[in-house]
Write a structure and sequence with these properties.
This protein is α/β, with parallel strands linked by helices.
Length: about 675
């Protein structure tokens, strides 16, 4: 039987029992699993780096011969393996190099004396010796039949997967690609144009080149082709989701507009032009024949809440309910307080539901019926009973929720309109890739009367001077946030922790009242602390990044972030947005440990700009999309080869191809196998 993507790895004839078990335990069930495990890098083994004469910051790829192996003691209970290597020369031993592996005594068996090895790692100096610690290494095969797989070529290096040796994985993939018929590989994209940049390529040829490239040029082309496939799959999924949404019929949620002028007259300030423009775009959606599916983007402090409030008023006017879901109890409590305050003149019925609190939801509380506006956290997902006639769903800080969570709330009603908001400015490429099923409204104007924020980076400041500055601000009637990366001290991470520093600051600032808030506190404790801070009972708040989103205390003018290099730029920009919300001048002080010069230099981006989009673009370049989307991952589902910074042109091409594919085949029969599951979708945001 010819090989296919579905052929079980266990049926490959060249594998021994041990190799089959290793591959199975590492999760390689089919030939397709092997072929889509792409190399993490390559070594050009047609030539090697010169044997080192001094330390090098650049990782080197070397050939050497083992001359001696010893297990040594670094202390009473710590052993390390020391391997002596010599340069390969034609007639004699060359220069020497010492390789060390700590706490791995078993590794000595991997270095038989006189065996040739390939090494990859950085060289450092220790006295007169040159040393490599824990390099990647691989024996040079003596078998002449295997040498063409591992040597004298651009050699793939795969990420460690279970206990599968590098050479085993490489050999198995080499044999699979030699035996796999071209007809067994289905193209995801239509046949490229004979004159285009991918002329002559197919998925089969790209897989051959990505694993065993014949040249650097063919490798680059194969990566770009497979990256385009990945972007196309993402775009197809996003557009298909939008297509399904557009086929639904929304409830009537536009209202008459009579309450909006009454609401605006009651407010002590005028809406910005950007807010008015976004409200008009949303009103047009609410009056349309398709459910609204819109993303409201705005920098911190740009007034997204009031735009959402206007949309919810219009929905209520039409006789439907409106729901706002926030990612944290702190933010839900704040929204509830703001909505209650600003909508009081309209006499609307407002309720709140978090994991521990219900307010305004009792059946007999409202003689006129159930709440018209409900505000809460993810607890709303399990409370379908509250929804009598759901017309509008507003989701704040969209990147804190998964797509599947959004869909679950949406399914609580009959195709309600959906408005998702984020204060994290998202670069256009990322918006198109992740939120391409949403129309976008942009708040690109800040309300008048906001104070100036001055941002500075400091290394190891004098804490007596810091305390004096804080006292000066408190005496002037202002308040301050002091943010730390950890809740409690950690043995593994030598970082300052909020709980420890709380005690230290009590002593430094006594008798100024100080509070503490972090993620491990109960919802009631966090809410009580934040309320005390808003009412100025607490003047200085020690916190973790739990205050990152939505906390609005106009009197707070100081934000100090300690160990600031441990935070992403986008997150620091969010934290900075907690100040400068009133008319007073504000200071954001980013305190670096001084142990990471690159990290300190990165922080200076925030000294130069308060433009959230500029900060987001820089963060995307430095840390990848995971930081901006609030995930730990550096990529997105299905993106192994695509890079959202490097491959912006490919994203645009993929969008066009996906649009054409949907127009030609709305049922997606040809591409149905490409659509992600709910579980995969959930990681998109």
């Amino acid at each position: 039987m010819p090989l296919t993507f579905q052929t079980p790895v266990a049926e490959l004839p060249s594998l021994g029992t041990r190799e089959r078990n290793q591959l199975k335990e590492a999760g390689f069930a089919t030939v397709g699993d092997l072929l889509t495990h792409f190399p993490m890098r390559y070594e050009d083994r047609r030539s090697y780096d010169a044997f080192p004469q001094e330390a090098s910051e650049k990782a080197l790829c070397l050939q050497a011969r083992v001359t001696d192996v010893k297990v040594r003691f670094a202390g009473p209970k710590q052993r390390y393996t020391e391997v002596q290597l010599a340069e390969l020369t034609e007639n004699a031993w060359g220069r020497s190099l010492t390789v060390r592996f700590f706490s791995m005594p078993f590794i000595a068996k991997a270095f038989p004396v006189d065996e040739k090895v390939i090494l990859y790692g950085k060289v450092k100096s220790s006295g007169a010796r040159l040393i490599m610690d824990h390099p990647e290494f691989e024996p040079i095969p003596e078998d002449s039949e295997e040498q063409p797989i591992h040597l004298n070529r651009i050699t793939p290096i795969y990420g460690k997967r279970g206990g599968v040796p590098q050479r085993t994985l490489r050999r198995v993939l080499y044999e699979v690609l030699a035996d796999l018929p071209a007809t067994a590989v289905n193209d995801v994209l239509r046949t490229p144009s004979a004159k285009g940049g991918f002329a002559g390529l197919s998925r089969f040829l790209a897989l051959q080149e990505i694993h065993f490239p014949t040249s650097q040029e063919s490798l680059t082309q194969a990566r770009r082709y497979l990256a385009l496939e990945e972007f196309f799959t993402l775009q197809l999924n996003v557009l298909h989701r939008r297509q399904q949404w557009d086929q639904l019929t929304p409830p009537k949620s536009s209202g008459t507009g009579s309450l909006i002028p009454q609401w605006l007259e009651s407010m002590p300030f005028a809406l910005t032009n950007a807010q008015q423009r976004c409200i008009a775009e949303i009103n047009a959606d609410l009056a349309g024949v398709r459910p609204m599916h819109r993303l409201l983007q705005g920098d911190v402090g740009s007034g997204k809440t009031f735009v959402a409030m206007a949309a919810m008023i219009r929905a209520v006017e039409s006789g439907t309910q409106a729901v706002l879901m926030a990612p944290t109890v702190i933010l839900a409590e704040q929204h509830f307080a703001n909505f209650t305050k600003w909508l009081a003149p309209l006499g609307l019925r407002i309720g709140m539901r978090t994991g521990t609190r219900k307010e305004g939801l009792e059946a007999d509380l409202w003689s006129d019926g159930p709440p018209q506006i409900i505000i809460g956290t993810h607890a709303l997902l399990s409370e379908k009973a509250f929804f009598d006639n759901l017309g509008l769903v507003v989701i704040d800080e969209q990147h804190k929720f998964g797509v599947s969570q959004r869909a679950k709330l949406i399914r609580s009603g009959t195709a309600p309109h959906v408005l998702v908001m984020t204060a994290t400015p998202i670069p256009r490429t990322l918006t198109m890739t992740v939120y391409g099923d949403l129309d976008v409204s942009l708040l690109d104007e800040m309300p008048a009367g906001r104070g100036i924020i001055q941002t500075t980076v400091r290394e190891k400041p004098d804490m007596k001077q810091v305390a004096a500055f804080l006292r000066q601000q408190v005496e002037a009637g202002r308040q301050a946030y002091l943010v730390y990366p950890l809740v409690e001290a950690s043995e593994k991470l030598k970082l300052k922790a909020a709980t420890d520093e709380f005690t230290a600051w009590q002593q430094r600032l006594s008798p100024i009242p100080i509070g503490l808030v972090h993620g491990r506190m109960s919802a009631e404790e966090k809410a009580a602390t934040m309320q005390a801070f808003r009412s100025m009972e607490i003047k200085v708040l020690i916190a973790t990044s739990v205050i990152e989103v939505g906390v609005d205390v106009p009197n707070a003018t100081v934000m100090m972030v300690f160990e600031a290099e441990r935070f992403g730029l986008a997150q620091l920009h969010q934290l900075r947005g907690r100040i400068g919300r009133g008319q007073h001048r504000s200071w954001c002080i980013l305190v670096a440990s001084g142990q990471n010069p690159e990290g300190t230099e990165r922080l200076k981006v925030l000294e130069k700009t308060t433009d959230g989009f500029a900060v987001a673009e820089e963060d995307l370049k430095l840390r990848g999309p995971g930081e901006l989307l609030g995930t730990a991952q550096s990529g997105l589902p299905g993106l192994q080869l695509g890079d959202l910074v490097r491959d912006q042109a490919l994203v645009n091409v993929a969008r066009q191809l996906a649009t054409e594919a949907l127009s030609q085949d709305p049922s997606l029969r040809r591409h149905a196998h490409l659509l992600f599951t709910d579980a995969e979708n959930a990681t998109l945001s």
